[in-house]
Structure formats: C-alpha cells, structure tokens
C-alpha cells in the first residue's frame, strides 16, 4: 500500500529536501503528492522544482492546524527537531509536538507514521540520558510508542552529512579562517551517515508496511572521533589545521561564549552533554542493511564534494541513471 498523499513535517530542512526529491522520483510512488508545511514556506527553495510537492504556510505546533493538514493524508514523516535551546524548547519540539501529532492522527484516521529520532536515545527511562536533547528525544519516542492505532517506525540516525550539512562543511569553512581548531569534545565518537542514505531509508520504510513497529539505526560504515572528522574536513578542503582538544571545563567556557553570539551556536553545553553518549550504532537493532541499503562512507561523499566535486543531487541522479 503506497501512500498516495504524504505529509512531511520539517520537510524544508536538510533531510526533508532529500526525502521529498527521492519520493518524487520513486517509481513506486508515481502519482502521489507531498505536502510540506512550514511557518516560512519559502525555505527549502529547491522543493519548488518538484511538481508533486506543495508547500503550505502553516504552524505545525498548532493542534487545529495539524488536524487540517492531515485531511486525506495516508502517511506522515516527522523530521522536526532542534539541536539547541532551553528545556522548554526541547520539550515543545520533541515531546509536545509528537503528542499533538499522535492525537491529530487518531482523530483524522491516519495510522502510518515514520518518526526520525537519534542515536544515543535510551530505550529505558528518558531521564537516564545526560542531555536535554537526548532526554526529550527519548520522551518523544515513548509518547508515540504508547499512542493507540499508530503503525510507527522510528529511525535513529547518527550525525548526518551531505552537501548542505552544518557539520563537515562548517568545520571545513572554519579551518579556512582559523590557524588552529580549539575543539571541545574531540574524543566524542560518531558514525556519520549520508543524508541520501537516510532519505533512502525513509522511502523504504514508507513503501514497506512490514517496517511498522521497528526501530532502525541509521549509521555509516565507519566510526570516527570528532577530532578526526574535523581534521578530515580540513584536509579535504585544503585547509587542514592543528586540532587542539579542550578539557571539559574549557569546552564549557567556549560553549558559553559561543552561546552569546547571534544566530545558532556552533556548540552548546547541552551538545557536550549529548556527546558523552557515543553516537554510534548499538548493533542490537536493525540497521540500513536490513532495508537493503549499503551506506556510503563520509570520505566517499565529502572528499570530492569539498574539493568542488559532485553534489548530493548529482550523486542521486547518477544513482538513478
């Protein structure tokens, strides 16, 4: 049963744009439509080139609006997430929104939901997690799992990289400017996953109802420390700088100073708390291989990209050729 109308919450973001493009090009989904609500629908401008995508101005945090958006919908993908914020902001994005979404789905008769969470989320007590981010993500998962009537699939990705990421590319740009990289959390471990592999996993889950009831870990083929990834980003972009690991106290001072700058901070104290949990697959749950996806390594994608090579979209088109 292929969804004929798909609602993507958070669809103007990094993963949402890739998912919309993949779904629009998926032969099995031919004739289906995609609705992408946003308070700023002009974001995600690339979506305008997809004829099956309709961007609408809407606040998905409003219960009545959510219910209207769900009219005639066959499946929902929830990508809404924040990395920085207060306890109240994390609660609103990661717990209250899933609560409202589950209730709205029940009232609208929509049962299929694919929810994107994160690696490092505890399966037990949410309060056992060390950060507001992970605690709120865990609580959001529990909300959805306890909702009656939902055919729920949860994806837990590691840090996601790609042409438009705010991770590998950001560290590459910083090294073009700074003579040395003073780095908090340098020993934190990650298993980076390509945005196109995450999008492919979402498509497979939407097409396969047997994935309902499962939690799937989305991780790349390699485990790296943050310090190693920063050095690689500099090397691939031609601006490799020495990495100076900071002790925890100095990292927290740095995070506090970054938080005073305008815009989204590069690193926060809560990020440092999240990095106490390795952001790697546990191996206890199915991974991308269970969906028939062989994940790409960060080097295979980002090394040519940072050197001016093909973008994610180029690679996606080549994969369909």
From TrEMBL:
The keyword Transferase does not apply. InterPro entries: ComplexI_NDUFA9_subunit, Epimerase_deHydtase, NAD(P)-bd_dom_sf. The keyword Plastid does not apply. Gene3D superfamilies: NAD(P)-binding Rossmann-like Domain. It is an enzyme of class 1 (oxidoreductase). It comes from the Bacteria. One of its GO terms (molecular function) is oxidoreductase activity. Its EC number is 1.6.99.3. Pfam families: Epimerase. Keywords: Oxidoreductase. Residues 7-213 form the NAD-dependent epimerase/dehydratase domain. This is NADH dehydrogenase. The lineage of its organism: Bacteria, Pseudomonadati, Pseudomonadota, Betaproteobacteria, Burkholderiales.
């Amino acid at each position: 049963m292929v969804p004929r109308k798909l609602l993507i919450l958070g669809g103007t973001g990094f993963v949402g744009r890739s998912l919309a493009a993949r779904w629009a090009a998926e032969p099995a989904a031919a004739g289906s439509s995609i609705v992408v609500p946003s308070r700023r629908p002009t974001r995600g401008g690339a979506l305008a080139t997809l004829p099956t995508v309709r961007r609408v101005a809407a606040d998905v945090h409003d219960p009545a609006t959510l219910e209207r958006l769900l009219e005639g919908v066959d499946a929902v993908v929830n990508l809404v997430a924040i990395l920085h914020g207060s306890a109240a902001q994390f609660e609103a994005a990661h717990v209250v929104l899933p609560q409202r979404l589950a209730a709205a789905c029940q009232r609208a008769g929509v049962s299929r939901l694919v929810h994107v969470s994160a690696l490092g989320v505890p399966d037990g007590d949410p309060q056992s997690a060390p950060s507001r981010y992970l605690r709120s993500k865990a609580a959001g998962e529990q909300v959805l799992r306890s909702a009656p009537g939902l055919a729920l699939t949860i994806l837990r990705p590691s840090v996601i990289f790609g042409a438009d990421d705010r991770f590998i590319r950001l560290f590459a740009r910083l090294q073009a400017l700074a003579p040395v990289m003073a780095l908090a959390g340098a020993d934190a471990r990650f298993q980076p996953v390509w945005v196109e592999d995450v999008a492919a996993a979402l498509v497979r889950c939407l097409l396969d109802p047997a994935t309902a009831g499962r939690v799937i870990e989305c991780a790349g083929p390699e485990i790296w420390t943050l310090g190693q990834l920063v050095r690689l980003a500099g090397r691939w972009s031609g601006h490799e700088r020495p990495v100076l690991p900071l002790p925890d106290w100095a990292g927290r001072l740095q995070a506090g100073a970054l938080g005073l700058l305008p815009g989204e901070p590069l690193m926060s104290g809560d990020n440092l708390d999240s990095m106490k949990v390795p952001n790697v697959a546990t191996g206890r749950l199915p991974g991308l291989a269970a969906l028939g996806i062989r994940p790409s390594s960060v080097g295979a994608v980002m090394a040519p990209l940072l050197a001016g090579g093909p973008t994610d979209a180029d690679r996606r088109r080549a994969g369909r050729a």
